[in-house]
Amino acid sequence: MVGFFISKTSWTRFGRLMPWIMFSTPFAIISYFLIWFVPDISKGQVMWYLVFYCAFQTLVTCFHVPYSALTMFISREQSERDSATAYRMTVEVLGTVLGTAIQGQIVGKVDTPCIGSPFFFGLPNSSVAMEELNTTHDTASLTDTRNAYMIAAGVIGGLYILCALILLLGVRERRESSELQSDEPVSFFQGLKLVMNHGPYIRLIAGFLFTSLAFMLLEGNFALFCTYTLGFRNEFQNILLAIMLSATLTIPFWQWFLTHFGKKTAVYVGISSAIPFLIMVVVLDSNLFVTYVVAVAAGISVAAAFLLPWSMLPDVIDDFKLQHPSSHGHEAIFFSFYVFFTKFTAGVSLGISTLSLDFAGYQTRGCSQPGQVNFTLKMLVSAVPVGLILLSLLLFKLYPIDEEKRKKNKKALQDLREESNSSSESDNTELASIV
Q: Where is this region: Disordered (predicted)?
């Protein structure tokens, strides 16, 4: 819906996309901070959290969709858009590293010891007993933890404002590149039908969906895997940092790779490179050096998964414009579905992980876990992501826009624009002669 509303937004002196970013940012920061604030009410805390979490996600969508679609409206050149996408994804991953480090350092200073409860493991009411044990945790420590999370939220909110200001002051939409406003009114469902009936987009977004789910399962469970299965309780933050730093540093490499060997080849090589390392970390005995090697290798694939599907999306939009030359203004809808599936896979990943670990008998804040939990964690960080990666590679294989097709589309679009410009000039000449 946000993508559709953006496509109907009138041009302002700030552009069409920037007003959405400007007005959503302050409210998103407020709602994010209130997520971490615990109100002093005996009932209704779940509703408080639900309301502000949904508000935050909605406002982030109002930021993320125009922010992503902005790639299409700063240049018409494919090479410039690819370069902008690479820069954007590099900074996004770097921002993830920074946010993880800030929150980890602030919250990590609060002592929250694990709870040793081997007696409870295997009992039918072990989760209830653990819950009772959790409630007896020192109140002062709980207060410190709450304060630490709010301080971290305030720091990250300040970072949000700084980045939004840099975007607003440093980037300008080029009106001549913007074809966001439709020549004829198109209803929401008409635009949705046009976009979702475009074959290359369906194949690309399906591959993107399974790739995102694979890496979100890996990232979401890797900390627990390091803590309980591998036994590196004091190292998991550094291992996660190694993944994200590796991803940040290798995005420029993948940008170079795709310009020399093509985007489809880069997808095959980049995303599949994680498979042997994901198998290795589960098969081999617990070893800190091997774990760091796997973390760096996973980061290289994470970089490819971050960059390549996003860099392929503008090519799909160009292909759509050639097939529907009289239908404009759907770019934001294309990007909004990418954002939608990013959120969707995050939710699915969280649901799969939570349910799987709950069935296996996971104990919150336990010093150790039952054997079934360790087996489940191995599946969640190795077998399941590998299967999803293989499925995504098959879908990318069906994606029809290779380098040859992309170059043909680029030439055809240039011809269409030149033809449109020449007809416009002839109309102006004819009007001038009549006057």
A: 410-435
Domain holding 404, by residue range, is 2-173+196-414
pLDDT greater than 50 at residue 126: no
Three-state SS annotation for the chain: CHHHHHHCCCCECCECCHHHHHHHHHHHHHHHHHHHCCCCCCCCHHHHHHHHHHHHHHHHHHHHHHHHHHHHHCCCCHHHHHHHHHHHHHHHHHHHHHHHHHHHHHHHCCCCCCECCCCCCCCCCHHHHHHHHHHCCCHHHHHHHHHHHHHHHHHHHHHHHHHHHHHHHHCCCCHHHCCCCCCCCCCHHHHHHHHHCCHHHHHHHHHHHHHHHHHHHHHHHHHHHHHHHCCCCCCHHHHHHHHHHHHHHHHHHHHHHHHHHCHHHHHHHHHHCCHHHHHHHHHCCCCHHHHHHHHHHHHHHHHHHHHHHHHHHHHHHHHHHHHCCCCCCCHHHHHHHHHHHHHHHHHHHHHHHHHHHHHHCCCCCECCCCHHHHHHHHHHHHHHHHHHHHHHHHHHHHCCCCHHHHHHHHHHHHHHHHHHHHHHHHHHHHHHHHC
Q: What is the pLDDT of residues 240-284, one digit of tens each?
A: 788 888 888 888 899 899 888 888 899 999 999 889 988 888 888
Residue 428 domain-assigned (yes or no): no
What CATH number is given to the structural domain containing 263?
1.20.1250
pLDDT tens for each residue of 33-42? 999 998 888 7
* Structure token digits, residue 350: 């969280």
Q: Is residue 410 part of a domain?
A: yes
- Average model confidence (pLDDT) for the chain? 82
Does 185 map to a domain?
Answer: no
Count of structural domains within the chain:
1
**135 or 249, higher pLDDT:** 249
Kindly state whether residue 182 falls inside one of the protein's structural domains.
no
Segment of 176-180, 188-192, 372-376, 418-422 carrying the highest mean pLDDT: 372-376
Residue of higher predicted confidence among 173 and 150: 150
